[in-house]
TrEMBL record:
Protein name as catalogued: Acyl-coenzyme A thioesterase THEM4
Gene3D superfamilies, sorted: Hotdog Thioesterase
Membrane topology field: Peripheral membrane protein
Sequence ranges assigned to domain Thioesterase in this UniProt record: 120-192
Lineage: Bacteria, Bacillati, Actinomycetota, Actinomycetes, Micrococcales
Family recorded in the similarity comment: Belongs to the THEM4/THEM5 thioesterase family.
Location in or out of the cell: Cell projection, Ruffle membrane; Cytoplasm; Membrane
Length: 209
């Protein structure tokens, strides 16, 4: 373990929350992540032949070894950093595009690709919750970039959330009590309310992981 592995939660979030600067090297990393997204979408849709599967498995194992040889401590990683216009550099949820940021309200949109399927064309419920966690966490952090963690997140599923279609999201601060921020969110497909959530985010204290 290096000294950089033992930062507290606030210091780590401040380091990792910054937008990743643009260089030819980081641009190449963004392009690789976009290719991984494309690959994930292709994986869930294909039933390749045994020969193709063996070929792809060997290629993937080779790429995995290349990545493992370049592994760095969490605080130095580009993954998870702010990516600017294209949202965070991450693969957990569809990319969230933030359209409007106000003190107590955020508007955003996204399009979830095939990788995020649950069944029968509907988005996986865990991904819906993960989208709310990211968006409501951003709302709780506010313009000051408070470092908060989710204490609870309740998601209500009202209608299936479609893939490959524009989805509109809104988040609001409902109330604030000391370190606690109660926030709510809605996910819409056109005029259809697909899901809504309410959550409590608690601001971290110095020394908290
Ligand atoms: C688009 C780009 C996005 C970019 C932005 C991306 C943001 C992403 C955000 C993602 C965040 C995550 O997923 S975080 C990962 C998931 N969450 C976690 O792992 C959190 C695990 N839990 C914890 O670490 C802890 O329990 C905390 C930090 C939540 C709270 O611990 P603490 O700091 O010691 O505080 P504690 O004294 O217990 O509680 C403080 C106050 O909150 C209340 N409280 C605490 N927990 C609860 C609870 N579950 N339900 C009700 N109330 C609670 C207490 O009663 C108390 O109220 P009172 O006495 O003051 O009235």
């Amino acid at each position: 373990m290096t000294s950089l592995d033992s930062l507290d939660g606030i210091a780590m979030a401040k380091r990792r929350g910054r937008r990743l600067e643009d260089t030819p090297h980081t641009q190449a990393y963004r392009e690789m992540l976009a290719a991984v997204r494309g690959f994930q979408n292709a994986v869930v849709q294909a039933n390749p032949s045994p020969e193709e599967l063996a070929q792809m498995t060997a290629s993937l194992q080779e790429m995995q070894a290349m990545l493992e040889a370049q592994a760095v401590p969490e605080v130095e990683r580009w993954y998870g950093r702010g990516g600017g216009r294209d949202g965070k550099l991450q693969l957990v949820t569809p990319q969230l595009r933030i359209d409007v940021v106000e003190e107590d309200r955020i508007q955003a949109h996204t399009v979830a690709e095939e990788f995020y399927i649950g069944m029968n064309g509907a988005m996986h419920g865990g991904i819906v919750a993960a989208i709310f966690d990211a968006l409501l966490g951003r709302m709780a952090s506010g313009a000051q970039g408070r470092v908060c963690r989710t204490a609870y997140l309740t998601t209500n599923y009202r209608a299936i959330t479609p893939l490959n279609e524009r989805l509109d999201l809104v988040a609001k601060v409902e109330s604030v009590e000391r370190r606690k921020r109660f926030v709510s969110g809605q996910l819409w497909h056109g005029d259809t309310l697909c899901a809504e959530a309410d959550a409590l985010f608690v601001e971290l204290l110095p020394g908290h992981q």
